[in-house]
Amino acid sequence: MNIWIMNADGSAARPVTDNPCSLDDYGPDWSPDGTRIAFKRGGYSSQPPEAKGLFTIRPDGTGLSRIPNSVDYSSQPAWSPDGARITFARDNGIFVMNADGSGERQIVPGQTAVATHRPSWQPLPGGPPPPPPPDTTPPSTPANLTAAAGNRSIGLTWTASTDTGGSGLAGYEVWRSTSGAAGSFVKRATTASTTYTDAGLKRGKTYWYHVVAYDGAGNRSGPSSTASATAK
Question: Which pLDDT belongs to residue 100?
């Protein structure tokens, strides 16, 4: 079992974790700034103890990190509103620690024949409002890409994307292929503009392009339609 994320409307579902087949990932919780997801990895298996416990990972599936000193029977992690601490449950109570795994202490003792579950943070009355939910919505796909040939250059223009996820549109990636629209594309540049000039090209050679929008949270749109031109 893996951790998955998707847009609020149910689209673009994709896995975040890819765990060993004998283990399960569950109980995810977003960090307040949306950059990390804490979760439990466990299960009945012959995997060594260091393969289990509490982990964090980036929403794009990179940066998997085991929280030091967490054990297999630690579960149900929950970030503090400021992202500095994580609370979690064990068989013998509720605990809290710093986000890096240090400073662990018990805050609710367990009781015989009574289980403690599902810790969560609540803001104090009169305190600051909770942070907004993390942005997992990609920008719209750039439209109307055109390519115009110049002197050993090709000028690209496209229609701006929009971003409704809250983090704001951050810019565009320009991707180029030298082997056709179905060929392999390589990222050529990033820009905050809706225009880009690819210079220093070989005269008489054709180049193909598409553009991808990205936002402040790192969400990326699908590629635009492909446009091509032959450098003069």
Answer: 85
pLDDT digits (tens, 9 = 90+) for 128-158: 666 677 898 999 999 999 999 999 999 999 9
What b/e readout covers 77-106, taking b as 16+ CB neighbours within 10 angstroms? bbbebebebbbbbbeeebbbbebebeebee
Contact 215, 169 (CB under 8 A): yes
SS3 state at 85: strand
Read off the pTM: 0.53
Q: Sign (positive/negative) of CA torsion 59, 14, 24, 112? A: positive
Cβ burial 129-161 (10 Å sphere, 16+ → b, else e): eeeeebbbbbbbbbeebebebeeebbebbbeeb
CATH code, domain carrying 23 = 2.120.10.30
Q: Give which of 129, 189, 145, 137 is closest to 164, Cα–Cα.
A: 137
Q: CA nearest 139: which of 34, 229, 220?
A: 220
> Which residue among 109, 133, 165 closes a domain?
109
Show the domain range for 68.
4-109
**Best CA proximity match to 224, nearest among 202, 201, 194:** 194
